[in-house]
Amino acid sequence: MEKNSGLLKSAPIGVFDSGVGGLTVVREIMRQIPNERIIYFGDTARVPYGSKSKETVIRYSEQIVRFLQTFQVKTIVVACNTASAYALDTLEKNIEIPIIGVVKPGAKAAAEVTRNGKIGVIATEATIGSQIYTEYIKELNRDVTIYGKACPLFVPLVEEGLLQDPVTDEIARRYLAELIDIDIDTLILGCTHYPLIRSTLGRIMGEKVTLVNPAYETALELKEMLRAQELLNDEPPALGSNQYQFFVSDKAEKFVRFANSIIKYGILSAKAINMEEY
Questions:
Q1: Which domain range does residue 118 map to?
Q2: Of 178, 182, 199, whose CA–CA distance to 145 is shortest?
């Protein structure tokens, strides 16, 4: 990727997701590169993306990217596995700033850590159907076998805040039973909502299974990309400047409550935006 000399180090990073799951990526970016400013958009009116067609996900993603570009962002993180699987290639062709998704970093980590070559991927129906994790992992390691499992109920359970709940526990046991029987040793949390129930998933899978969190891996890759592009912000934003801004397409109050339960930075507000204008 060429150097983007026209971009400012102090410009914000744009991050988007179909809802609240991308906050797990934001949380990792805050931890790994704390000097950066972030503009986050959660498409709460149109969640979930996992059951939508490829064409629809591309159209939604293009609208959101146009919105984020109004903030002169220096890079965009597609913090949604479904949008990364369906829309990233199209977005890369149409914008001139660096853009990364969450799939490749997670695939790379899984290919590196597996010992027995049996990798499980849990994700939305769209991400599993796209075979995108299989494609990327096989490019890195031909000798592994990837087992995909769609877990569509996890997103609504997380969005309802049922993170530590017997219902979530029971559904997770049903979804994961076949992956346990196959004896996978690595499990990719292939939806940005899933790290929020990581403790449940880890308990059910057992300590012999390594959980790969693409949100964490994406933040590390973003840091390296910004460094390579000479876009890493050296200075912390000035006190009083709006370092983190949050936007949604619906239910801003509910989003703020949820965001504050995940990110301990005191998110005071989120502004609702009409995406049909973009």
A1: 104-214
A2: 182
